[in-house]
Amino acid sequence: AKARAAAAAAAAEEEQMHGSASSASGTSTRKISASSSNDDDSASAEETQRKAVKRKEVDTATKIIGRDGRSRKKCSAAGCTNAAQNKGLCKRHGAPIKLCNSDGCNNQVVKG
Predict the structure, then answer these.
(1) What predicted TM-score, i.e. pTM, was given to this entire model?
(2) Helices (H), the chain
């Protein structure tokens, strides 16, 4: 019992010496650096640079940007702006559709 009490006292003393940044910030044990509060201009510039998302240059004549941000090929039919699904065509302009190969099943393949 004396050993546990001595260990707890040592831990409490060590916490007081290092400061208790973790109690002010919730569950985080990371200490707040003093340099980030001193240089507000450089810190904010670095922060905005990290937050900026780099977008690729996309050739809009042959590619489109999907909802998820990826660039996809356009349908090769004249005047069509849909994304190509298979063989460079969208479904509307005749992209080959894979069908289920089970006996008597005419459903489209979900994957593959």
Answers:
(1) 0.38
(2) 2-18, 21-24, 34-38, 40-51
CB 80 within 8 A of CB 70: no
Tokens of 44: 């904010």
Per-residue pLDDT of the chain (112 residues; tens, 9 = 90+): 788 888 888 877 776 666 554 455 557 677 766 554 555 556 676 666 666 555 556 677 788 777 787 888 899 999 998 988 888 999 899 998 888 989 999 898 887 6
Residue type, 107: N
Max CA pair span of the chain: 86
Other beta carbons less than 10 A from residue 75's beta carbon:
21
The continuous run of DSSP H or E covering 64 comes out as strand 63-65
In angstroms, the Cα distances linking 96 to 86, 91, 92, 108, 111 are 6, 8, 10, 11, 14
CA distance 75 to 98: 18
